[in-house]
Design goal:
This protein has 6 helices and 5 strands. The longest helix has 30 residues. It is 54% helix and 10% strand. It starts with 11 loop residues before the first strand and ends in a 12-residue tail after the last helix. Helix 1 packs antiparallel against helix 6, helix 3 packs across helix 4 and helix 4 packs antiparallel against helix 6. Strand 1 and strand 2 form a beta hairpin. The protein is mainly alpha-helical and 202 residues long. The chain folds into 2 domains: 38 residues; 157 residues, Butyryl-CoA Dehydrogenase, subunit A, domain 3 (Up-down Bundle), CATH 1.20.140. The strands form 2 sheets. The protein has a 3-stranded antiparallel sheet with strand order 4-3-5. A two-stranded antiparallel sheet has the order 1-2.
Length: 202
């Protein structure tokens, strides 16, 4: 089965900044002046660095409290999972499910998928290339919704402040979680999806 020639085989590459298709021999993009590279420089190394840093920070983001609430003189610090359990027990299963998806399911999925993409790209594996490319697009898509937990904490704090007898304050855990979200987004942005197709001799 004949396949369409690749850009690299035609001596072409795309600018990482503006997307203009240029000849590989050009050192700079004629449109925006950015340096041209057939692949993102040190893509795998930078993606691994961001991913490992996110994994390390994910531990304190779940262990440390993300919010402190005080009602009628009674204060309590809550971690992410504690908040999920409390919302579920109070009957707010929809909020509990939202927090669980945004804070546990989505980050875990991103860690697993990014690690799979990085390992397979490093080995230049031909396994499920099309599916891996789709997984990368999926990771890009859900990355924009990863801050839902931070938004929920902000909204809860704002709502509690309306009650004169209650206060709510964010805690260190939410800072670590925000850093995890940012680092995983950087890891996905640093990964060059074209590496998925490298090494295909078919």
């Amino acid at each position: 089965m004949t396949t369409a020639p690749r850009a690299r085989e035609l001596g072409l590459t795309g600018c990482h900044t503006c997307g203009l298709v240029c000849a590989i021999e050009h050192a700079q993009c004629p449109r925006c002046g950015s340096h041209l590279h057939p692949r993102k420089p040190d893509s795998l190394a930078r993606s691994w660095a961001f991913l490992i840093a996110a994994l390390i920070l994910y531990i304190p983001s779940n262990v440390l409290p993300v919010m402190y609430t005080s009602m009628l003189g009674r204060g309590e610090a809550s971690t992410i999972l504690h908040g999920v359990v409390e919302f579920w027990k109070s009957g707010s299963w929809d909020i509990a499910l939202l927090i669980f998806i945004a804070s546990v399911a989505v980050p875990s999925t991103k860690f697993l998928v990014l690690a799979t993409l990085l390992v397979s790209a490093r080995r230049q594996s031909s396994w499920a290339r099309l599916q891996r490319a789709r997984l990368y697009r999926f990771i890009e898509l859900i990355g924009y919704w990863s801050m839902l937990d931070v938004v929920v904490v902000a909204l809860v704090c704002a709502l509690v402040q309306f009650h004169l007898l209650g206060t709510a304050e964010p805690r260190a855990g939410i800072v670590f979680f925000g850093l995890v979200v940012v680092l995983t987004m950087f890891a996905a942005m640093s990964f060059d999806p074209r590496l998925i197709w490298d090494g295909d001799e078919e």
